[in-house]
């Protein structure tokens, strides 16, 4: 990833240009082919135990140690539905404005694969637990990538289903090693309608979904660990005409690769059609609508609207899912968080978008605000442009930022008071190693307070070096002494 | 098969166990030569007649090793904790009898059926099983270092060289 960074920013510009050009072409030449993207997302439910058994859900455990007799599909075992998984699916559906089916059914989807010991997967094909929702997401567009573009994508349905085990292919010995630790873990399958037209939109939608799931606590959303798996269905067509043949882009484990892979596939299809070739559909054979039967071991799943609609015999029992309680208990969703930041700090929408989008950046910003009297509106640019830009350049996450919020606050106060110029402040914030090492202000200040003159001289020299001798030495010394007394 | 076990507490012998037991009962009572080591006397539960049923495995050299637990393993729930019984029409009972090849047109049989379809039981999210790799792995003929082994899949994977060139072309 480190060595990717320069290429990444280059390719980002390439793709935004691609979209810009495609958009222009569409407006001026409606006969041009555009991409159509629909996503199928499998989100691993964050629960202690699996969907239909009491074995632990975990990552990196010894092979086949988190497997019960039911997960291994031994005869005589039966599925028992985990209430937490139902609640997770319902909460996710409520957050995405879905209609909850009060009664939904479980089915068996039959196919043969070594990591599916039963020969079938328990899923919800006839009627899923939730349908007809939507996800609102935003992109930073425009030439300077600082204009918020709001879009929505419709959610066709959300269903509960089992995960399969893991296969490790050993080509040398012509065998497949099977680990069933993941077999039976609860998944929420979210099917989105093909309302997107390029990789950038798909990546933004997935990012927003990640934030929603993480806020709800229903899925940790880590793509690289397989907690969030995205399959993209991609086709091209001329606007107004019927949809083209779609191909699938699968096994994507990062949002970055998702965007690239989708755009590559759109480009490939456009070029193929331009040469007069047809687009070939190589979908999985078990994707057809056959191989389903109702799951005979599970009666319908019933969810109740409010406590009033629960039958008398069930009230107070553990095994009841009530929508009213879940709706009231929903935590603050990302969209609400962004609106709150705009209100409380007087920020622009694009600022709060960036704050919420980057893990930990909002907390960092709020910490800086606390430490200074400066207006938040004047601080935001430093955080979202300077600091974040340099973090990205060095490929660091916010949690690994070498400049602490209080250090940044101090720095900006100095800059505000005119004691150092913005250039100096920017250079400090640029996080170049030599600057970081010596200008960790809090440490140096503490040392000074212990009467260490050497440190004062070192700071003096540093400031002089950074200002290239432009700062008034007398002023700088008195300032530093004042600051550290 | 009626998934009745997870619903309520009183033990019921599953319908697909009754049939073979009945067959064996008739068979055993007609035979005189019974190898004593392969005869197991099965005592039925408190809800059924107390006549013991003999199970004979005359031509098997393995000892009879029943997997059916000797005592009930669930706690009974009170009637007030579950929703009311749904009505099952006699047409449906007819169809079910034909599918299951079992006669349960008695009052007890219908009650048993209605209770099975009453309510989907939802389990609490606590770890109660797993951690038994040492029991599962011996069930397979072949294992490799705690993994089960299967033949290679039928999807031809790209060889290393092909995969590298595929990825190369994916970069703009």
From TrEMBL, chain A:
Keywords: ATP-binding, Ligase, Mitochondrion, Nucleotide-binding, Protein biosynthesis. The keyword Signal does not apply. It catalyses: L-aspartyl-tRNA(Asn) + L-glutamine + ATP + H2O = L-asparaginyl-tRNA(Asn) + L-glutamate + ADP + phosphate + 2 H(+); L-glutamyl-tRNA(Gln) + L-glutamine + ATP + H2O = L-glutaminyl-tRNA(Gln) + L-glutamate + ADP + phosphate + H(+). Heterotrimer of A, B and C subunits. Subunit of the heterotrimeric GatCAB amidotransferase (AdT) complex, composed of A (QRSL1), B (GATB) and C (GATC) subunits. This is Glutamyl-tRNA(Gln) amidotransferase subunit B, mitochondrial. One of its GO terms (biological process) is mitochondrial translation. Its EC number is 6.3.5.-. GO terms for molecular function: ATP binding; glutaminyl-tRNA synthase (glutamine-hydrolyzing) activity. GO terms for cellular component: glutamyl-tRNA(Gln) amidotransferase complex; mitochondrion. It is an enzyme of class 6 (ligase). Allows the formation of correctly charged Asn-tRNA(Asn) or Gln-tRNA(Gln) through the transamidation of misacylated Asp-tRNA(Asn) or Glu-tRNA(Gln) in organisms which lack either or both of asparaginyl-tRNA or glutaminyl-tRNA synthetases. The reaction takes place in the presence of glutamine and ATP through an activated phospho-Asp-tRNA(Asn) or phospho-Glu-tRNA(Gln). Allows the formation of correctly charged Gln-tRNA(Gln) through the transamidation of misacylated Glu-tRNA(Gln) in the mitochondria. The reaction takes place in the presence of glutamine and ATP through an activated gamma-phospho-Glu-tRNA(Gln). SMART domains: GatB_Yqey. The keyword Hydrolase does not apply. It is found in: Mitochondrion. It comes from Gadus morhua (Atlantic cod). Residues 363-484 form the Asn/Gln amidotransferase domain. Signal peptide: none annotated. Pfam families: GatB_N (PF02934), GatB_Yqey (PF02637). Belongs to the GatB/GatE family. GatB subfamily. Its main location: mitochondrion.
């Amino acid at each position: 990833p480190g060595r990717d960074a320069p290429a990444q920013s280059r390719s980002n510009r390439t793709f935004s240009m691609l979209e810009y050009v495609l958009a222009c072409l569409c407006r001026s030449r409606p006969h041009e082919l555009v991409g159509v993207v629909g996503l199928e997302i499998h989100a691993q439910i964050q629960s202690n135990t699996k969907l239909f058994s009491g074995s632990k859900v975990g990552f990196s455990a010894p092979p086949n140690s988190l497997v019960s007799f039911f997960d291994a599909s031994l005869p005589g075992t039966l599925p028992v539905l985990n209430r937490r998984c139902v609640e997770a699916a319902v909460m996710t559906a409520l957050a995405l404005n879905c209609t909850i089916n009060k009664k939904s059914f479980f089915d068996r989807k039959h196919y043969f694969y070594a990591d599916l010991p039963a020969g079938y997967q328990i899923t919800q094909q006839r009627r899923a637990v939730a349908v007809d929702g939507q996800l609102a997401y935003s992109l930073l567009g425009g030439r300077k990538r600082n204009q918020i573009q709001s879009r929505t994508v419709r959610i066709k349905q959300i269903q509960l289903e089992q995960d399969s085990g893991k296969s490790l292919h050993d080509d040398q010995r012509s065998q497949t090693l099977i680990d069933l630790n993941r077999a039976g873990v609860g998944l929420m399958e979210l099917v989105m309608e093909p309302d997107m037209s390029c990789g950038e939109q798909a990546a933004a939608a997935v990012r927003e979904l990640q934030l929603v799931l993480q806020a709800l606590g229903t899925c940790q959303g880590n793509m690289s660990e397989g907690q969030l798996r995205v399959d993209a269905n991609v086709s091209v067509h001329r606007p107004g005409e019927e949809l083209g043949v779609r191909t699938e882009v699968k096994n994507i484990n990062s949002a970055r690769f998702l965007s690239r892979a989708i755009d590559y596939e759109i480009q490939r299809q456009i070029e193929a059609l331009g040469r007069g070739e047809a687009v070939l559909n190589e979908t999985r054979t078990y994707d057809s609508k056959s191989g389903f039967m109702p799951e005979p071991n599970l009666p319908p799943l019933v969810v109740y609207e409010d406590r009033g609609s629960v039958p008398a015999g069930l009230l107070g029992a553990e095994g009841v899912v009530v929508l009213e309680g879940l709706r009231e208990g929903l935590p603050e969703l990302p969209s609400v968080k962004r609106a709150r930041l705009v209100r409380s700090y007087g920020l622009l929408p694009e600022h709060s978008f960036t704050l919420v989008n980057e893990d930990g950046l909002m907390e960092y910003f709020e910490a800086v605000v606390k430490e200074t009297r400066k207006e938040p509106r004047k601080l935001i640019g430093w955080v979202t442009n300077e600091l974040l830009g340099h973090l990205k350049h060095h490929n660091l996450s916010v949690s690994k930022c070498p400049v602490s919020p209080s250090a940044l606050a101090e720095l900006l106060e100095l800059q505000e008071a005119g004691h150092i110029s913005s250039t100096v402040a920017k250079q400090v914030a640029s996080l170049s190693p030599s600057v970081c090492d010596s200008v960790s202000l809090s440490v140096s200040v503490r040392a000074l307070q212990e009467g260490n003159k050497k440190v004062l001289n070192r700071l003096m020299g540093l400031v002089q070096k950074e200002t290239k001798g432009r700062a008034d030495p007398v002023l700088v010394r008195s300032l530093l002494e004042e600051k550290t007394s | 098969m009626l998934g009745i076990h997870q619903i309520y507490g009183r033990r019921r012998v599953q319908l697909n166990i009754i049939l073979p037991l009945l067959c064996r009962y008739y068979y055993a009572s007609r035979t005189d030569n019974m190898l004593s080591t392969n005869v197991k006397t099965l005592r039925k539960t408190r809800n059924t007649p107390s006549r013991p049923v003999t199970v004979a495995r005359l031509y098997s050299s393995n000892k009879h090793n029943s997997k059916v637990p000797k005592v009930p393993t669930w706690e009974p729930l009170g009637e007030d904790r579950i929703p009311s019984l749904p009505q099952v029409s006699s047409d449906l009972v007819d169809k079910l009898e034909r599918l299951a090849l079992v006669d349960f047109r008695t009052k007890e049989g219908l009650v048993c059926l209605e209770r099975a379809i009453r309510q989907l039981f939802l389990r609490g999210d606590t770890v109660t099983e797993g951690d038994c790799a040492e029991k599962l792995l011996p069930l397979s003929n072949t294992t490799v270092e705690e993994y089960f082994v299967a033949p290679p899949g039928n999807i031809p994977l790209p060889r290393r060289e092909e995969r590298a060139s595929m990825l190369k072309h994916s970069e703009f």
